[in-house]
Amino acid sequence: MFWCLVPAVALFGQVRPGMPGPVRDLLTKGDFDFLRGLTRDVLENARLYPEGGGVNHTKGVLIRPGGAYPSFWIRDYAMSLESGMIGREEQEHMLLLTASTQCDQTRITPGGSLIPYGAIADHIRPEDGLPIYYPGTYSYHDQGTKEWGKAPPYDDQFYFIHMAYWFVKGNPNTGLLQRVINGIKLIDRLEIAFSVPPSMEETGIVYTSDEFRGVDFGFRDAEQITGALCFPSVLKFQASRELVWLFEHLGNRKKAARYAAISRALRTAIPRLFMDNRGMLRASTGKSRQADVWSTALAVYLGLSAGKNGYDACQALAEAYKSGTLAYKGNIRHILTADDFNDSTAWEFSLAARNTYQNGAYWGTPTGWVCYAIAQADRDAAKKLAGEYIADLRSTDFRKGPGYGGPYECFYPPDYKQNPVYLTTVSCPYGVFREMIILPPESGN
User: What is the DSSP letter of 120?
Assistant: First the structure.
């Protein structure tokens, strides 16, 4: 039995101009119901409640990434919003907490890195609500050292905007955008955050340098990727479209037009700058400039890669899947095995060993984007990939008891596994599959 597809923009108001054709029946109803139940249980496992004498003293629910991660990570939470399982009070608390910890004064860390005015935290400590802007530490005072960049990751600013967009879209009459937080309205904070990642003047493309490197995306913060950066530029495209909607909601046509122009410029510049001869998008133009599976699939899903460019990207992913260079048990590499930099490393520069963690392990987080993209070129291949993803989740399901830890953050055969009961491994793909079918509202929404 299969459920009917309706346009995603009609269902949940997502801003995806120029989405490719519809994607039907990638999951059976039974598989979808299983994924929904597992996502709900993993999400509950990730919640930190403020009551009961626990470690959360922020006076509201926080959602951790799962696994061994003890804090509230902005990107993991924002990437889970499309699950539709996070209620209004929870969303409001985490949005306002993130806004209240936005950097209000540019400063240099003891390790010699910069925290710019307007930066959004990488993660926030639940025990005291202090922001940590850099990966690799839980210390407020010792954060910001060279191996994790000289500037905070560039993605969190755009995910902050996504948090606000998602909340206002579901709760349009709260007036939260005009709420003053530490002397600055939320809508103004969103604009400040949007301008933090360094960008090329002509195109708006996010970039970094060897001398003053920032992490492009926290799901590869152990890698060195420099030059013009694809993934945060794709996120900037999404954020610009969301700001268009937010300013239209406020009746500010001038600001809406400004961000619409930015989104158009990015839509033109991203494929022109990053696309290789297969249709894949490269991660960057400097170090680690290999074709990037995650950027390629997300660009298709957001409607950024459309027309011939989009089809070429979908075809390239479909061919890679069928050749065995893309996926394992329904989980996805950052880089095709055929595109590894050499026999010692997947990315050109990495803090992780080859075929571990972000340097060649397989991740479930992008599986939904990849299934969506492959389905535009080869529906049967996409359906097979989706089925393999669900089969692996069923076999490792943590609810079976001791000895089971799925969904894992990432893994590599035969024995490497990283962080059990990991949220975005299910919440992110579930959000994609959820948009493809007619569903009743989730509880709490």
Answer: P
